[in-house]
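Re: that backbone. Tokens:
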């Protein structure tokens, strides 16, 4: 892995820790930094990072605290507090 990928992983960990401590704005800033870094270096974000961040408001999602997770037939629906929904298939 390169330096950018390592930094993206580290920012993901920092965002998770900040969100768990209740500092949503700091977590949001880490998510924005990681996304910007991935865009500049033409990298894809790790799956765990994509699944636990809101595309609309850049919040780091914690199920039960700021995100609602529901299962439907064939997919999982994750709803952020801002109202944005993300759907992920499963088998």
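Recovered sequence:
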């Amino acid at each position: 892995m390169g330096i950018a990928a390592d930094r993206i992983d580290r920012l993901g960990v920092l965002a998770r820790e900040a969100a768990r401590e209740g500092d949503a704005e700091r977590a949001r800033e880490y998510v924005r930094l990681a996304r910007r870094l991935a865009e500049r270096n033409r990298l894809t974000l790790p799956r765990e990072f994509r699944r636990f961040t809101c595309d609309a408001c850049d919040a780091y999602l914690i199920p039960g605290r700021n995100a609602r997770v529901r299962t439907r037939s064939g997919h999982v629906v994750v709803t952020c507090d801002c109202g944005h929904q993300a759907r992920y298939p499963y088998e």
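The chain is about 45% helix and 20% strand. The first strand starts at residue 67 and ends at 72.
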